[in-house]
Design brief:
Layout: E1 10-20, H1 23-33, E2 37-42, E3 45-49, E4 59-63, E5 68-76, H2 79-91, E6 96-102, E7 110-115, E8 121-126, E9 145-153, H3 156-167, E10 170-177, E11 181-188, E12 196-200, E13 205-212, H4 216-228, E14 233-239, E15 246-251, E16 257-261, E17 275-278, H5 282-285, H6 296-303
Parallel strand pairs: 1-4, 5-8, 9-12, 10-17, 13-16
Antiparallel strand pairs: 1-5, 2-3, 3-4, 6-7, 7-8, 9-13, 10-11, 11-12, 14-15, 15-16
Length: about 325
């Protein structure tokens, strides 16, 4: 195993929850165009699953006056690990939003919530019931699972340090620029190249949420289906160097960036060493050379609107 500052108790990313001013438009997009399955609703809430994932849901939408990240949820292996993480964070002075206890969302489980260093609400849970899921078939251009979540940070160095020091995330790679310095840090909590990443930005916000498709053909079919439907494409299709995954970035109706991807790299953690990748090199941004150029327009879209939910836990 890699040399970690603290034991790694987080196993994977579960779901990303968004507060949205127009719930109806978001539900229609994620169900009708993005390819998720609505598995539960409540007053002002929609829970959406990926057909190939055992997670109860991978996206939760909540009607909200403000556009925000409600929370990002990660899994742990056991309730004892949940307790150990809560104890560690409390000892280190991190603000707990809730103490470990029963999770009151689909699938139940045992978990707690806390604020990270910039005020995002993070949930960690174990013993969540697995959803009856299925194998996504050849040619089906729908998400198999939530691949990773990337956030924008006004203090990326501090945010990376927070997740490494308190939660045991490991650094996989860094995107850098000869004049602007380090710009994005890819963090892992399992052998996938990244489940979480942090980008430099003037303000904290969602950079993008990424969804894994079955393979290259399904990824391209999904990309084409969204293009034919008139969904605004930001960047892609292409293949990144860091992580070696494909990418097609689109905007949802509220202006959040969402990605179709496939073939994210799995690392040999015993031998892996983080690399510095200069994204002014076209091969770093897109090995294929098929994507539109990464320019100020693309970067601006990825900055998103400032998150209005910092240090303000969602009501559900």
């Amino acid at each position: 195993m890699p040399d970690l500052a603290v034991p790694r108790l987080i196993t994977h990313v579960r779901h990303v929850d968004l507060g949205v001013p127009d719930l109806a438009a978001q539900r229609e997009f994620y169900k009708g165009q993005w390819g998720l399955t609505e598995v539960a609703t409540d007053s002002g809430l929609s829970f959406l699953a990926a057909e190939g994932s055992p997670e109860q849901y991978v996206v939760r939408l909540r009607q909200s006056a403000d556009k925000r990240i409600d929370l990002i949820a990660f899994g742990a292996a056991t309730p004892a690990d949940v307790d150990a993480l809560a104890d560690r964070l409390a000892r280190d002075g991190v603000t707990l939003v809730s103490e470990p206890g029963t999770v009151a969302t689909p699938g139940g489980g045992y978990g707690f919530r806390f604020f990270d260093n910039e005020g995002r609400t993070i949930e960690i849970s174990a013993d969540v019931a697995k959803r009856a899921h299925r194998k996504v078939e050849e040619g089906e251009s729908i998400p198999v699972r939530l691949s990773h979540v990337v956030v924008n940070s006004a203090d990326p160095e501090g945010t990376v340090a927070f997740y490494e020091r308190h939660l045991g995330f490991a650094l996989s790679d860094i995107l850098t620029h000869p004049h602007m310095g380090h710009m994005m840090w890819f963090l892992r909590c399992n052998p996938w190249h990244h489940s979480f990443a942090i980008a430099r930005c003037p303000h904290p916000s969602l950079h993008h949420a990424s969804f894994e498709l079955r393979g290259i053909d399904e990824y391209m079919r999904g990309t084409g289906r969204l293009l034919r439907a008139g969904v605004e494409k930001i960047w892609g299709p292409g293949r990144h160097k860091a992580g070696n995954n494909t990418f097609s970035y689109f905007l949802d109706p509220q202006g959040n960036t969402v990605e179709y991807t496939t073939e994210l790299e799995r690392l040999d953690e015993d031998t892996w060493h983080p690399g510095l990748h200069d994204f002014t090199d076209p091969e770093v941004s897109d090995q294929w050379g098929t994507a539109n150029r990464m320019d100020e327009f693309v970067a601006r879209k990825s900055f998103n609107d400032p998150d209005k939910g910092l240090f303000l836990a969602p009501p559900v």
